[in-house]
Amino acid sequence: MTIADNIRRLRQQIPDHVRLICVSKFHPADAIKAAYDCGERLFGESHAQELTAKYDALPRDIAWHFIGSLQTNKVKYVVPRAALIHSVDSERLLAAIDRCAERNNLTANVLLEIHIARESTKHGFAPDEARTFFARRGWEQFPHTHICGLMTMGTATDDRTQTRAELHQVRSLFDELRQQCALPYFTELSMGMSDDFDIAIDEGSTMVRIGTAIFGAR
Q1: To bridge 192 with a disulfide, which of 131, 178, 186, 208 should be the other Cys (CB 3.0-4.6 Å)?
Q2: Pairing of strands 145-152, 188-190
Q3: Cα–Cα distance between 31 and 8 in angstroms, integer?
Q4: 20: β partners
Q5: Which residues lie below 8 Å from residue 189, measured CB to CB, with a gap of 6+?
Q6: Chain centroid to CA 211
Q7: What is the pLDDT of residue 117?
Q8: Residue 182 exposed, middle or buried by CB count within 10 Å (0-12, 13-18, 19+)
Q9: Confidence of residue 43 (pLDDT cuts 50, 70, 90)
Q10: Residues 161, 164, 169, 172: is their CA dihedral positive or negative?
Q11: Contact 145/110 with Cβ under 8 angstroms?
Q12: What residues contact residue 133 under an 8 Å CB cut-off, 6+ apart?
């Protein structure tokens, strides 16, 4: 199947209120252009250098989402180019993003990554760390950054019951924090990839990050 075929099939499964992030990391510009020609405008990258190169080479109406682990020394490349940074996994990174946004005279839009998976290789705030951050109104320390919601990656497992339980837990945390902070821009819940996006949508995801089901294996 072609990229266009894959997108048409996915669009039949994804409700209009859920945004599709086409995960284009490691895929060439011509593959991204094929998805772009189908009307897609949201693309996800996970490396600062790759994002920079594609940002310069592809149409400027693309909204780039940064979805990978971000080192503080790479923030300067990502903040001016990313419409949304999904993977803020520490206050140290949040502070670096805020300083960079101030230098660039812009507001950075970010999601806090929640570590819910049973894997030490994945990153993020533990749920109770996120609760503590919001209880002390931690976002007020970062005036050049909007915390727009939460992101998570579930455990890599074929057990869909476990996947649903993990995503449900993050959805419950999202609802709790949204009520607590009452920030008008805290509206996004980024959950779900090629293998579990249907569960994520059921559990309230507002955006799904799909690469393999669009572009094929890397």
Answers
A1: 208
A2: parallel
A3: 15
A4: 208
A5: 149, 150, 151, 170, 171, 174, 204, 205, 206, 207
A6: 13
A7: 76
A8: exposed
A9: very high
A10: negative
A11: yes
A12: 91, 112, 125, 139
Show the CA angle centred on residue 148, arms to residues 152 and 137, nearest 5°.
100
Give the global pTM: 0.96
Q: Are 193 and 5 in contact (CB under 8 A)?
A: no
- With beta carbons less than 8 A apart as the criterion, state whether 40 and 21 touch: no
* Residue that the structure tokens 């570590």 belong to: 115
- Name the one residue in this structure whose structure tokens are 């895929």: 27
pLDDT at 215 > cutoff 90: yes
Determine whether 28 is exposed, middle or buried from the number of CB atoms within 10 Å of its CB (0-12, 13-18, 19+).
exposed
C-beta neighbour count of 179 within 10 angstroms = 9
B/e letters for 84-106, b = 16+ CB within 10 Å, e = fewer, are: bbbbbbbeebbebbbbbbbeeee
Both tokens of 164, joined, read 């649903």
Q: What is the pLDDT of residue 120?
A: 66
Distance of CA 110 to the CA centre of its chain: 8
